[in-house]
Amino acid sequence: MLARYFEFAALGTNWRTEILAGCTTFITMAYIVFVNPAILSETGMPYQAVVTATCLAAAFGSILMGALARYPIALAPGMGLNAYFTYAVVKGMGVPWQVALGAVFLSGVIFLLLTLSGIRRLIIEAIPASLYAAVAVGIGLFIAFIGLRNGGLVAAHPATFVTLGNLRAPTTQLALAGLLIMAALFARRVRAAMLLGILATTILGGLFGLLTWQPQPLYLAGFAGTFLQLDIRGALSLGLAEIVFVFLFVDLFDNIGTLVGVSKKAGLVNEAHEIPRVNRILLTDSLATIFGSLVGTSTVVSYIESAAGVTAGGRSGVTAIVTGLLFLVAIFVVPVLGIIPAAATAPALVMVGSMMISHAAEIEWENPLVSFPAFLTIVAIPLTFSIANGLAFGFTAHTLLQVLAGRGREVNWVVYALTALFLLRFFYLGQG
Q: What is the pLDDT, as a whole number, of residue 432?
């Protein structure tokens, strides 16, 4: 009965593949359990409470996505939005973290209303078909760049922005070894190549003394420090319209971009460039953001690392459910998760990126009306470190070129409205 509900036969998958894919997605994005609390705790939020809140929010969003929408997309507190929450809102504007959580709650409620009214579905349907492949390619480059950075293969440079990392560093050499192991497993068509590669790299790091581990207490004890501590009335009284707009905008288009990219990679987009059950997907991330603000974390978003599970064979909601269940388990085994080094998960991101590049072949490069917006989308996502920015550049270029080419009447009103919103965002906010 469950196999029929999750459409295993139609998707060409099985329980073993889905469980392995869920484990792969979890291990690839497990870093959020440590990184999100490290960032949010700078606001004064209790670190242990945020660890628990992060795991609960990721579990709730991922399980709901898998059970309701039946997609292999995992959710967790978003990187970038947590930094905006901490450094721009709380530390920059002097807003108490409880009030900032209230603003996150309000953005989630607005998301929910936009979803129930069908506006968010109109937005997704308004995305030009040519940009679907471009978003997938851009996300692939984005994921690969993150992997190269996390593995130490590229590093920041004051003159050239980025440069080759220190290849003599033991952790960088471990990442290179992991990349070679994973590529070899893929070449041999091993179904669990991603997961086995991560585990093999972790073991290799342990043999060379590159793993660190410190015993930690159980984090459930301090959960009350953030649970239901949001101040909605304070957010309303301060009139935090700009803050709510940023949370709303970035979450909206990051989620849409991730949804399009991961669905494209999984082959879940139909011939009409439509995503089945899209309203359920949008409803899920709306409820996940609301839930996250209640337990004590910043905006919850769909994770691009879900592509790792898709690459491992995940096609149904079981992948996301497994990932969510593992986040629940993570509350009790946080110290064990800390053993897995970034050098072990970085190669997985590079491999995922290399596979998502294949969608570039679907773009009509000889047609400037298609190729130029697609190109802007592809390069802007990794270079601005934002899926939302890439989608905004490509979408705006598409609309303006249609008008300049004398085809403005073929563009529907939703596209014009979204283009105006993108332009407003660029000029009003200045940056992401």
A: 44
Sign of CA dihedral 375, 376, 381, 382: positive
Separation of alpha carbons 360 and 119, rounded Å:
29
Q: What is the C-alpha separation between 260 and 362, in angstroms, rounded?
A: 14
89 or 69, which is more confident: 69
Collect all residues with Cβ–Cβ distance below 8 Å to 104 and sequence separation of at least 6.
Answer: 85, 230, 247, 289, 292, 293, 298, 299
Angstrom distance (rounded) from CA 13 to CA 331: 29
Spatial separation of the C-alpha atoms in residues 257 and 292, rounded to whole Å: 21
Distance (Å) of CA 271 to CA 275, 276, 360: 10, 11, 17
Taken in order 111, 112, 117, 120, the sign of the CA dihedral is positive
Which residues on adjacent β-strands are paired with residue 154? Answer: 164
- Listed range (31-35, 185-189, 258-262, 279-283) with the worst mean pLDDT: 258-262
> Residue 156 pairs with which residues in a beta bridge?
162
Phi–psi pair at 326, nearest 5 degrees: -65, -30
